């Protein structure tokens, strides 16, 4: 057992949490709650947990008072399916407000019961992004509520370290990003700039390369590939020419990324084009982790120091013969043998809630000693 968490290969982390409102009272007479939100390009999850205000240790399994799921809350990608007259920021904001309200309702609580909120949202890449969301949250919650906004990668890291910000996280789902924290608080990130700017290890990146390979095979610029028949069948199309209309009818990231299983199936059948796409993706994902590790010196001076690498996202959880996650870990450990892969036992939304709790406890301690 290590200090970073437990890795047992079980990707169904939601089952590691206990739902229901039987735990609404914290045991110290208070009924306050904490909200954690994980918002990405595909879906948004909010969980409501007791505040545990006087408890230093957390119960296991962690009681989940309420849980809700909604659509995309990344203002950079939600807009491709939103009418042009409705600002993308409004669409993302509506999604976040709805999912929090539903989680609170399921927990039997209301806005006034909230002690702290942590939003881990993809697309939060700059302090101005954080401030914009914080200003909106201040309009919803009472003034006593502590509000925290982070990139969704930070919440994902916390889901593997149970709230401790140390080590590196790799998210590879619809999009991808690597994010890390050193013991002294320094942080660094790599990738996460979206498919246009080169996140080729993401689900979108893998699928986009597969679609490109089909078109190139069709017009003679590339080799023939099993991807052609596999993808056309999956989309109920009769010709590669129809892919053009299908792609641009709705180029949302999640819609394209949903084709990743077809690429994996072709690679498992030894299709060279599909295999190269996955190998390149694994190397690109490993490279993003290596960049963060090197910048933060997580591996120590000798390069052999131990540090956690939290692995999150559907691309890494394929659980197939051609396992992208295993290939990524192999690439990382060739350079950093002390890298310790972790599959979280709680979902990123719970990680966000644990972050909020830890931030709240830290502030309370600092205020007590000041």
Automatic annotation (TrEMBL):
Domain of life: Eukaryota
Segments of this protein annotated with the region Disordered: 1-25
Residue ranges with Polar residues bias: 1-11
Gene3D superfamilies: 3.30.420.40
Domain ATPase BadF/BadG/BcrA/BcrD type positions: 35-356
Biased composition (Basic and acidic residues): 12-25
Enzyme class: transferase
EC number: 2.7.1.59
CDD domains per the UniProt record, alphabetical: ASKHA_NBD_DdNAGK-like
A molecular function GO annotation: N-acetylglucosamine kinase activity
UniProt similarity note: Belongs to the eukaryotic-type N-acetylglucosamine kinase family.
The protein's name: N-acetyl-D-glucosamine kinase
Native source organism of the sequence: Salix dunnii
């Amino acid at each position: 057992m290590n200090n970073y968490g437990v890795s047992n290969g079980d990707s169904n982390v939601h089952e590691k949490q206990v739902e229901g409102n039987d735990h609404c009272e914290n045991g110290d007479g208070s009924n306050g709650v904490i909200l954690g939100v994980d918002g990405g390009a595909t879906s948004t999850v909010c969980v409501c947990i007791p505040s545990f205000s006087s408890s230093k240790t957390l119960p296991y399994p962690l009681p989940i008072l309420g849980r809700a799921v909604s659509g995309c809350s990344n203002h950079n990608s939600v807009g491709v399916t939103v009418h042009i007259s409705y600002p993308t920021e409004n669409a993302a904001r509506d999604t976040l407000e709805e999912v929090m309200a539903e989680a609170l309702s399921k927990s039997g609580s209301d806005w006034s019961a909230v002690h702290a909120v942590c939003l881990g949202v993809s697309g939060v890449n700059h302090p101005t992004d954080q401030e914009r969301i914080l200003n909106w949250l201040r309009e919803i919650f009472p003034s006593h509520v502590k509000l925290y906004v982070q990139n969704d990668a930070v919440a994902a890291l916390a889901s593997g370290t149970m709230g401790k910000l140390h080590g590196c996280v790799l998210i590879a789902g619809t999009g991808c990003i690597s994010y890390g924290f050193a013991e002294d608080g320094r942080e660094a990130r790599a990738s996460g700039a979206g498919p246009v700017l080169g996140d080729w290890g993401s689900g979108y990146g893998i699928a986009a390369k597969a679609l490109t390979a089909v078109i190139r095979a069709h017009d003679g610029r590339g080799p023939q590939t099993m991807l052609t028949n596999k993808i056309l069948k999956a989309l109920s199309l009769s010709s590669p020419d129809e892919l053009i209309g299908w792609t641009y009818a709705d180029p949302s990231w999640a819609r394209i990324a949903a084709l990743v299983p077809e690429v994996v199936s072709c690679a498992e059948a030894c299709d060279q084009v599909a295999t190269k796409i996955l190998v390149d993706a694994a190397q690109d994902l490993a490279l993003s982790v290596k960049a963060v590790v090197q910048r933060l010196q997580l591996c120590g001076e000798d390069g052999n120091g131990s540090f956690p690498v939290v692995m999150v996202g559907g691309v890494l959880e394929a659980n197939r013969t051609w396992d992208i996650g295993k290939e990524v870990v192999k690439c990382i450990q060739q350079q950093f043998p002390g890298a310790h892969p972790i599959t979280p036992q709680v979902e990123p939304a719970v990680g966000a809630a644990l972050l909020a709790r830890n931030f709240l406890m830290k502030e309370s301690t600092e205020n007590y000693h000041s």
